[in-house]
Amino acid sequence: MANTAFSPTNSVTVTSAANFIPEIWSDEIVAAYKKNLVLANLVKKMSFKGKKGDTVNIPSPARGNASAKAATDAVTLIAESDTNIQVLINKHYEYSRLIEDIVEVQALTSLRSFYTEDAGYALAKRIDTDLVQLGRAFNGATVGTDDYATSNTTTKAFVGSDGTTAYNSTSSNAASLTDAAIRRTIQRLDDNDIAMDGRFFLIPPSSRNTLMGLARYTEQAFVGNGDAIRNGEIGQLYGMAVFATSQADTGAGSSGLDRICLMGHRDAMVLIEQTGIRSQTQYKQEYLGTLFTADTIYGVKALRTSATSTASNASAAFALAVPA
Question: What DSSP string runs through 49-68?
Fold first, then answer.
């Protein structure tokens, strides 16, 4: 026999609270998160989920050279030489909303859809921005020392007009992207023996506008590949996928006006996720509302940015400075 001693008519059930079941929020957030990622989808990604610790060590062995075999002589042994790259898992970002009961009662269900999509967008934007900032260390620059987000004059990013002139953040000599700069940057990747497969070219909206004004890119060289188009992909350029993102606008120049184009290979950077996108809800009686929070824990690191002659650490990506 059912216990009727305490049987309120206004109990919160899985039916009445369906809009705030955490699993539903999570599914929608992950979808929006993946939809908005651009650069994070192009670089190496490693999962650290379910593991303890705050540092991931990635071995970086040097490539060996072939030796001529002399008759009757023993083979030439190659000594092991490698370095260790440490990636700190030190980034924890969250997105939170407190939804009061009156809102739940009166608002349209589309409000929840907005919050979930907005959470996914905000977290994806944060990750892409952190990866774009690593571009300041390309070409052998040191972030905070001679990268082109400071006022130093000994910068190593190239201006977009020719791809050879060093960017000067004091005089802000960035120039519009040109075909010569693109071809010169491609040659740098070729000279460093960077694999063709896995290359990408990331540009800001201003550079996309430049490319769309050049007939050769809108006719044959700059068209979609006809296959599944990835997030942000706008075409092909000399056999390399081109992606546009507003995140390439940020952190590129002391004035905040100059922007960045990144051409590189997926092995140039790594994204390590310790906690993927998760969402949680908790009813806060003191506020008569539901607290909704989405968060993620991750770390990013530039892997191959030193533009030296050795094959083990030759730069796998280069930065081009372009104006706003």
Answer: TT---SEEEEEEEPPP----
SS3 151: coil
pLDDT at residue 153 in the model: 56
Yes or no: say if 277 and 123 are a contact pair by the CB < 8 Å rule: yes
Alpha-carbon separation of residue 141 from 129, 144, 286 (angstroms):
18, 9, 52
What CATH number does the domain located at 20-60+84-324 have?
Answer: 3.90.1690
Q: What is the pLDDT of residue 204?
A: 87
For 120, the enclosing helix (H) or strand (E) is helix 110-134
The C-alpha atoms of residue 278 and residue 192 are separated, in whole angstroms, by 40
- DSSP code of residue 154: -
β-pairing, 240-244 vs 199-203, is: parallel
The CA distance from 240 to 319, in Å, is 16
Supply angle C-alpha 100, 20, 115, rounded to 5: 70
Alpha-carbon distance of 276 to 294, in angstroms, equals 10
**CB neighbour list of residue 246: distance below 8 Å, 6 or more residues apart:** 204, 205
Place of tokens 């490693």: 46
Q: What is the pLDDT of residues 205-258, one digit of tens each?
A: 888 888 877 766 666 545 555 444 456 688 888 888 888 888 766 544 444 557
